[in-house]
What does this fold into?
Amino acid sequence: MGETVIKGEPQHIISLFPAATDYLLALGIVPEAASSNEEGSDQFPTYLSDQLQGSKNIGWQVDPNFESILAAEPDLIIGQDFMSDAYSSLSKIAPTLLAEKLKDDQGIIRMKTSLLHMGDMLGKTEQAKQVIEDYEAKAKDAQAKIKQAIGDETVMFLRLSDKEVRYYSKRNYEVLYDDLGLTPPPSIPDPSESMKVISMEMLPTINPDHIFLLSSDPNETSELEKTAVWKGLNAVKNNHVYNVDYGLWFQGPGGPIGQTKIIEETVQFLTQ
It folds into this structure.
Protein backbone atom coordinates (compact mmCIF):
# COMPACT_ATOMS: atom_id res chain seq x y z
CA MET A 1 0.00 0.00 0.00
CA GLY A 2 2.97 2.32 -0.41
CA GLU A 3 5.50 3.34 2.22
CA THR A 4 4.90 3.02 5.96
CA VAL A 5 7.48 4.33 8.42
CA ILE A 6 7.70 2.56 11.77
CA LYS A 7 9.63 4.48 14.40
CA GLY A 8 11.39 2.50 17.13
CA GLU A 9 10.41 -1.01 18.17
CA PRO A 10 6.60 -1.49 18.31
CA GLN A 11 5.38 -2.77 21.69
CA HIS A 12 1.63 -2.98 21.07
CA ILE A 13 1.16 -4.93 17.84
CA ILE A 14 -2.30 -6.15 16.87
CA SER A 15 -3.29 -8.60 14.13
CA LEU A 16 -6.60 -8.35 12.26
CA PHE A 17 -6.72 -11.75 10.54
CA PRO A 18 -5.65 -15.34 11.41
CA ALA A 19 -3.16 -15.62 8.52
CA ALA A 20 -1.41 -12.44 9.64
CA THR A 21 -1.29 -13.78 13.20
CA ASP A 22 0.27 -17.00 11.90
CA TYR A 23 3.04 -15.04 10.13
CA LEU A 24 3.75 -12.96 13.23
CA LEU A 25 3.98 -15.94 15.59
CA ALA A 26 6.19 -17.83 13.14
CA LEU A 27 8.56 -14.84 13.16
CA GLY A 28 8.67 -14.81 16.97
CA ILE A 29 6.27 -11.88 17.43
CA VAL A 30 3.32 -12.39 19.78
CA PRO A 31 0.66 -9.76 19.05
CA GLU A 32 -0.85 -7.97 22.05
CA ALA A 33 -4.28 -8.42 20.48
CA ALA A 34 -5.54 -10.56 17.60
CA SER A 35 -8.72 -11.40 15.71
CA SER A 36 -10.98 -14.33 16.45
CA ASN A 37 -11.33 -17.53 14.44
CA GLU A 38 -14.52 -16.66 12.52
CA GLU A 39 -17.55 -14.39 12.50
CA GLY A 40 -19.50 -14.56 15.74
CA SER A 41 -16.67 -16.31 17.60
CA ASP A 42 -14.74 -15.04 20.62
CA GLN A 43 -12.10 -17.76 20.25
CA PHE A 44 -8.71 -17.63 18.58
CA PRO A 45 -7.99 -20.13 15.76
CA THR A 46 -7.65 -23.50 17.48
CA TYR A 47 -4.19 -24.15 16.09
CA LEU A 48 -2.83 -20.81 17.34
CA SER A 49 -4.62 -20.49 20.68
CA ASP A 50 -1.83 -22.03 22.76
CA GLN A 51 0.55 -19.30 21.56
CA LEU A 52 -1.93 -16.47 22.21
CA GLN A 53 -2.78 -17.12 25.84
CA GLY A 54 -1.65 -13.66 26.95
CA SER A 55 -3.22 -11.82 23.98
CA LYS A 56 -6.55 -9.99 23.85
CA ASN A 57 -9.22 -11.24 21.46
CA ILE A 58 -10.65 -8.32 19.46
CA GLY A 59 -13.27 -10.33 17.55
CA TRP A 60 -13.75 -11.01 13.84
CA GLN A 61 -12.19 -8.17 11.84
CA VAL A 62 -12.81 -8.98 8.16
CA ASP A 63 -14.72 -5.69 8.14
CA PRO A 64 -12.49 -3.86 10.62
CA ASN A 65 -14.20 -2.62 13.76
CA PHE A 66 -12.34 0.65 14.24
CA GLU A 67 -13.70 1.20 17.73
CA SER A 68 -12.31 -2.10 19.05
CA ILE A 69 -9.02 -1.53 17.21
CA LEU A 70 -8.66 1.97 18.64
CA ALA A 71 -9.43 0.66 22.14
CA ALA A 72 -6.51 -1.79 21.85
CA GLU A 73 -4.15 1.23 21.58
CA PRO A 74 -1.84 -0.32 18.95
CA ASP A 75 1.45 1.16 17.83
CA LEU A 76 1.48 -1.20 14.83
CA ILE A 77 -1.45 -2.83 13.02
CA ILE A 78 -0.99 -5.93 10.87
CA GLY A 79 -3.92 -6.46 8.53
CA GLN A 80 -4.48 -8.67 5.49
CA ASP A 81 -4.26 -7.68 1.84
CA PHE A 82 -8.04 -7.77 1.24
CA MET A 83 -8.42 -4.88 3.75
CA SER A 84 -7.10 -2.26 1.33
CA ASP A 85 -10.34 -0.23 1.48
CA ALA A 86 -9.85 0.19 5.24
CA TYR A 87 -6.13 0.98 5.01
CA SER A 88 -6.46 4.76 5.15
CA SER A 89 -8.65 4.63 8.27
CA LEU A 90 -6.42 2.04 9.96
CA SER A 91 -3.32 4.11 9.24
CA LYS A 92 -4.86 7.04 11.13
CA ILE A 93 -4.95 4.85 14.26
CA ALA A 94 -1.38 3.49 13.94
CA PRO A 95 1.19 2.53 11.27
CA THR A 96 -0.38 -0.31 9.28
CA LEU A 97 1.10 -3.14 7.22
CA LEU A 98 -1.02 -5.52 5.13
CA ALA A 99 0.21 -9.09 4.98
CA GLU A 100 -0.18 -10.66 1.56
CA LYS A 101 -1.00 -14.18 0.50
CA LEU A 102 1.13 -14.09 -2.64
CA LYS A 103 0.10 -16.29 -5.58
CA ASP A 104 2.21 -17.76 -8.38
CA ASP A 105 1.29 -17.54 -12.06
CA GLN A 106 -1.11 -20.49 -11.68
CA GLY A 107 -3.02 -18.80 -8.86
CA ILE A 108 -1.61 -21.05 -6.09
CA ILE A 109 -0.93 -19.27 -2.78
CA ARG A 110 2.74 -19.68 -1.89
CA MET A 111 3.41 -19.62 1.85
CA LYS A 112 7.20 -19.28 1.62
CA THR A 113 7.04 -16.23 -0.68
CA SER A 114 4.36 -14.66 1.52
CA LEU A 115 6.34 -15.24 4.72
CA LEU A 116 9.54 -13.82 3.25
CA HIS A 117 7.65 -10.73 2.15
CA MET A 118 6.25 -10.27 5.65
CA GLY A 119 9.68 -10.93 7.17
CA ASP A 120 11.23 -8.24 4.97
CA MET A 121 8.61 -5.69 6.06
CA LEU A 122 9.21 -6.42 9.74
CA GLY A 123 13.01 -6.69 9.61
CA LYS A 124 12.78 -10.44 10.25
CA THR A 125 14.22 -11.80 7.00
CA GLU A 126 16.66 -14.22 8.61
CA GLN A 127 13.99 -15.59 10.93
CA ALA A 128 11.71 -16.15 7.92
CA LYS A 129 14.45 -18.04 6.09
CA GLN A 130 15.00 -20.30 9.10
CA VAL A 131 11.28 -21.05 9.41
CA ILE A 132 11.21 -22.01 5.73
CA GLU A 133 14.28 -24.24 6.06
CA ASP A 134 12.72 -26.10 9.00
CA TYR A 135 9.41 -26.38 7.15
CA GLU A 136 11.01 -27.84 4.02
CA ALA A 137 12.83 -30.48 6.05
CA LYS A 138 9.60 -31.49 7.80
CA ALA A 139 7.67 -31.62 4.52
CA LYS A 140 10.33 -33.74 2.83
CA ASP A 141 10.32 -36.28 5.67
CA ALA A 142 6.51 -36.40 5.72
CA GLN A 143 6.29 -36.82 1.94
CA ALA A 144 8.51 -39.91 2.08
CA LYS A 145 6.38 -41.48 4.84
CA ILE A 146 3.13 -40.82 3.00
CA LYS A 147 4.46 -42.06 -0.33
CA GLN A 148 5.48 -45.32 1.30
CA ALA A 149 2.04 -45.68 2.88
CA ILE A 150 -0.34 -44.81 0.01
CA GLY A 151 1.74 -44.50 -3.16
CA ASP A 152 -0.19 -42.60 -5.86
CA GLU A 153 -3.66 -42.99 -4.34
CA THR A 154 -5.78 -39.87 -4.90
CA VAL A 155 -6.72 -37.35 -2.20
CA MET A 156 -9.68 -34.96 -2.38
CA PHE A 157 -10.49 -31.99 -0.12
CA LEU A 158 -14.23 -31.40 0.40
CA ARG A 159 -16.18 -28.90 2.46
CA LEU A 160 -19.86 -29.09 3.32
CA SER A 161 -21.39 -25.66 3.79
CA ASP A 162 -25.00 -24.47 3.59
CA LYS A 163 -26.06 -27.72 1.91
CA GLU A 164 -23.33 -27.34 -0.73
CA VAL A 165 -20.52 -29.74 -1.59
CA ARG A 166 -17.41 -27.67 -2.27
CA TYR A 167 -14.50 -29.29 -4.09
CA TYR A 168 -11.27 -27.38 -3.39
CA SER A 169 -8.44 -26.70 -5.82
CA LYS A 170 -4.71 -26.39 -5.19
CA ARG A 171 -4.97 -22.61 -4.64
CA ASN A 172 -5.16 -22.85 -0.85
CA TYR A 173 -3.67 -26.33 -0.48
CA GLU A 174 -0.13 -26.25 -1.84
CA VAL A 175 0.77 -28.00 1.42
CA LEU A 176 -1.12 -31.11 0.26
CA TYR A 177 -0.43 -31.25 -3.45
CA ASP A 178 3.02 -29.66 -3.74
CA ASP A 179 4.82 -29.82 -0.40
CA LEU A 180 3.55 -33.33 0.39
CA GLY A 181 3.24 -34.43 -3.24
CA LEU A 182 -0.24 -35.95 -2.82
CA THR A 183 -2.00 -37.05 -5.99
CA PRO A 184 -5.21 -35.08 -6.68
CA PRO A 185 -8.12 -36.58 -8.62
CA PRO A 186 -7.80 -35.79 -12.36
CA SER A 187 -10.88 -33.54 -12.10
CA ILE A 188 -9.49 -31.17 -9.45
CA PRO A 189 -10.61 -27.56 -10.16
CA ASP A 190 -8.15 -25.15 -11.73
CA PRO A 191 -6.23 -23.12 -9.10
CA SER A 192 -7.52 -19.92 -10.68
CA GLU A 193 -10.61 -20.80 -8.60
CA SER A 194 -10.35 -21.67 -4.92
CA MET A 195 -13.14 -24.22 -5.19
CA LYS A 196 -16.03 -25.50 -7.29
CA VAL A 197 -19.53 -26.31 -6.05
CA ILE A 198 -20.46 -29.81 -7.23
CA SER A 199 -23.51 -32.03 -6.90
CA MET A 200 -23.57 -35.21 -4.83
CA GLU A 201 -24.11 -37.10 -8.07
CA MET A 202 -20.66 -36.03 -9.30
CA LEU A 203 -18.81 -37.69 -6.44
CA PRO A 204 -18.87 -41.24 -7.90
CA THR A 205 -17.27 -39.96 -11.12
CA ILE A 206 -14.40 -38.51 -9.07
CA ASN A 207 -14.30 -41.42 -6.58
CA PRO A 208 -11.09 -40.51 -4.71
CA ASP A 209 -9.14 -42.97 -2.59
CA HIS A 210 -9.02 -40.55 0.36
CA ILE A 211 -11.23 -37.61 1.41
CA PHE A 212 -10.37 -34.79 3.81
CA LEU A 213 -13.82 -33.62 4.93
CA LEU A 214 -14.49 -30.19 6.43
CA SER A 215 -17.99 -29.56 7.73
CA SER A 216 -19.42 -26.35 9.15
CA ASP A 217 -22.32 -28.32 10.61
CA PRO A 218 -22.01 -31.94 11.88
CA ASN A 219 -25.69 -32.49 11.05
CA GLU A 220 -24.95 -31.87 7.38
CA THR A 221 -22.18 -34.45 7.50
CA SER A 222 -24.45 -37.06 9.07
CA GLU A 223 -27.11 -36.47 6.40
CA LEU A 224 -24.49 -36.89 3.68
CA GLU A 225 -23.21 -40.09 5.22
CA LYS A 226 -26.69 -41.67 5.00
CA THR A 227 -26.88 -41.46 1.21
CA ALA A 228 -26.20 -44.40 -1.11
CA VAL A 229 -23.95 -42.18 -3.23
CA TRP A 230 -21.68 -41.49 -0.26
CA LYS A 231 -21.65 -45.09 0.95
CA GLY A 232 -20.58 -46.26 -2.50
CA LEU A 233 -17.38 -44.19 -2.64
CA ASN A 234 -14.06 -46.03 -2.41
CA ALA A 235 -12.80 -43.72 0.35
CA VAL A 236 -15.90 -44.41 2.42
CA LYS A 237 -15.87 -48.17 1.91
CA ASN A 238 -12.19 -48.30 2.87
CA ASN A 239 -12.60 -46.02 5.91
CA HIS A 240 -10.42 -43.35 4.32
CA VAL A 241 -12.53 -40.29 5.17
CA TYR A 242 -10.89 -37.89 7.62
CA ASN A 243 -12.92 -35.20 9.41
CA VAL A 244 -10.73 -32.12 9.79
CA ASP A 245 -10.87 -29.08 12.08
CA TYR A 246 -12.17 -25.82 10.59
CA GLY A 247 -9.80 -23.58 12.51
CA LEU A 248 -6.74 -25.39 11.18
CA TRP A 249 -7.75 -26.64 7.76
CA PHE A 250 -9.66 -23.56 6.60
CA GLN A 251 -7.73 -20.75 8.31
CA GLY A 252 -4.35 -22.51 8.46
CA PRO A 253 -3.37 -22.96 4.79
CA GLY A 254 -1.04 -20.19 3.66
CA GLY A 255 0.55 -19.75 7.08
CA PRO A 256 3.77 -21.52 8.16
CA ILE A 257 2.40 -22.69 11.52
CA GLY A 258 -0.88 -23.82 9.98
CA GLN A 259 0.78 -25.70 7.14
CA THR A 260 3.22 -27.37 9.52
CA LYS A 261 0.34 -28.66 11.65
CA ILE A 262 -1.55 -29.77 8.54
CA ILE A 263 1.53 -31.79 7.56
CA GLU A 264 1.53 -33.47 10.97
CA GLU A 265 -2.17 -34.35 10.77
CA THR A 266 -1.88 -35.55 7.16
CA VAL A 267 0.89 -37.97 8.11
CA GLN A 268 -1.26 -39.22 10.98
CA PHE A 269 -4.30 -39.71 8.72
CA LEU A 270 -2.58 -41.37 5.78
CA THR A 271 -0.07 -43.62 7.54
CA GLN A 272 -2.28 -45.06 10.30
